[in-house]
Amino acid sequence: MQYSWKSIPRYIRYVFVQTLYLFLLMLMFRTIFYLFFFKTTITDNAAIAKAWYLGVKFDIRLTLILIIPIALLALIARNGFFTSKAIRNTNFIYFFIVYLVLTLLYILDLGHYDYLGLRLDPSVLRFLAKGERADNARMVWQSYPVVRGALAIIVFMYLLWRLQKNTWKRFAAQAPVYLRNWPFTGYTVGLVLLVAAGMYGNFAWFPLRWSQAMFTRDNGVTSLGLNPILYFVSNFSVKGDTFEEEKTRKYYPTIAEYLQVDSLEASKLNYVRTVAGDPAKPKLNIVLVMLESTGAAVTSMYNNPMQATPHMQRLADSGVLFRNFYVPAISTAKTVFGVTTGLPDITAVKTASRHPKMLDQRIIMDQFKGYDKLYLLGGNTNWANIRAVFTNNVEGVRIYEEGMYKSPKADVWGVSDYDLITEASGIFKANNDQHKPFVAFLQLADNHPPYTTTSGAGDFKKVTEKDLDMNKFRQSGFVSVDQFNALRYEDYNVGHLIDMARKDGYLDNTIFVFFGDHNCVLNPYKFMPLPEYDIATGGVHVTAFMYSPKHLAPQQVNTPGSLLDIYPTVAGMVGMPYKNYTLGVNLFDSTRAKDKYVFINYMRNQQPYYAILGDRYLYEINFKTDAAAMYDLLENPLKNIRAEQPDTAKSLDNLTRGFYESTRYLMFNNKK
After folding, report:
1. Domain named Sulfatase N-terminal: which ranges (predicted)?
2. Are 449 and 385 in contact (CB under 8 A)?
3. 333-365: per-residue pLDDT in tens?
4. Rounded CA gap, 439 and 572, in Å?
5. pLDDT tens-digit readout, 33-61
6. CA angle, corner 125, sides to 121 and 128, nearest 5?
7. Contact (CB, 8 A) for 437 and 370
8. Which residues in 411-442 are b (16+ Cβ under 10 Å) and which e?
9. Which residue from 265, 485, 528, 606 puts its CA 20 to 30 A from 19's CA?
């Protein structure tokens, strides 16, 4: 064997060895992902083994793609490969860049998966948006061991450089093997065939495809079967966000009838609904409270075993709890845009708040005549260009942000939630004392990495594993005690807000609306009525409740609701006349008790879907393939019954596409 190996020209053997090195690097990161980040509900070892098998083949494909430049150089230079200083330097520089980029991308992928539960995709580029890089960099600095990580990368790259140098020296010191033309041609053809076969990756009539990694409905197994870098590159060439007026007109009659527009006019694409006011209703204050990363599954009201949110539970029990409330997409910026404009943010890579052509919208918040309009957050409104969502669409809006508070910054997200609430309550009190009704959007942020918590009034205490029933903890879905403490701290601050409202005298004439912006990343959980972890709707199923002890009787609403519905609902509660140009409806409209659907986006098995969800059915369409499926949530939420109920499927297909195409159209054509 040794003789056969030595008889191969050293430049060809060098290519083989470098191929092995690259493959082992990818295998190392795959193993790290499996040991420390992989989570699944699937217990079938055969499925996990298949994911490993497919993932390794993708790793081989990427390895062979990266080795091609060196292989070509070696075949062209032949024995001159080890005698040319220019080739040596080119070789070292190429491999240094390749290993550095691979290492950084794999680390970024692991962080992305830990944060969002998804492999790396082009949407990560939104974190590099102009004006936001510094904030995002501070978040990374405060949330992760950046210094130790950078030192580890430096040491790792040094070891790789030493390995490269020693490998070169070892091969350069060996005697050259001279080949005649035919043997050389044979080696060249053999190399080409091996590389082509490895990149083809299949014993079939078609090459290895991403769809093969999606052989289960489980995101963890699918993620294990992918190579994150190839996946990132394959999704990079996304189409620009736009609309197709012809498709909008095709589905307009369905969505217009569903929305009950004033005048069904396909030629004008009219979406307007005029809602008369009720002057007999008191002009109560409205405070919308966005709860960062607060899905339904993590809170006490939805049967989580850890019962982490007693303050929210108390308020929900005394107010109105929406058991089936959804946000259109998993993104804080998309939630702020959606609740404010009444349109789902379905942008592919950026967010609508970062698209200048989508910032001009006719919204209901602007129509609260006689009300002061406020937006308050602890950080900077340059984040995601959110400032423009309000200043461009809400006349006279008062924005309170970082630098305007007396309290010091707590972390990258600005002042702590406790301090933000304390100072916000003073602002609300001043308005209330002057008998000026107000509608305010209060955005909390601490239930988010780096999970900064304070002692609040001095009585908030973090817990440790020793304080917890870890059997319950493992069933609850929480991924860490830090995450659990951050939610407890958010719940503490919800209680603080109500205490301040009572103390400052505006509790009795204010409606508080609490809602999560999306769920946090969780381990598999089974305690919800629907298998939402498996069907992937758990990420957009959020906590939502209203509290106003003098004006709202305790009630639970099971009809599906969306954050698009918040402003139409609160406008109706205070008797405010308005024109609704977009897609939200009044959550208390009794005529919609049986036919209400919410529009949502989610990722399952690394595939993006848009869907509508109602009391009984979930109808989804794959963004990429346009394949559709329908599930009966009452009978079997995991079985596609689209073929079994063609009439229902056709109706829901039209409504789903109507929501989607109308959203695309209105994002560009709902200008003031």
Report:
1. 285-575
2. no
3. 999 999 999 999 999 777 888 887 888 899 999
4. 13
5. 999 999 888 888 999 999 999 999 999 99
6. 155
7. yes
8. bbbbbbbbbbbbbbbebbbebbeeeebbbbbb
9. 606
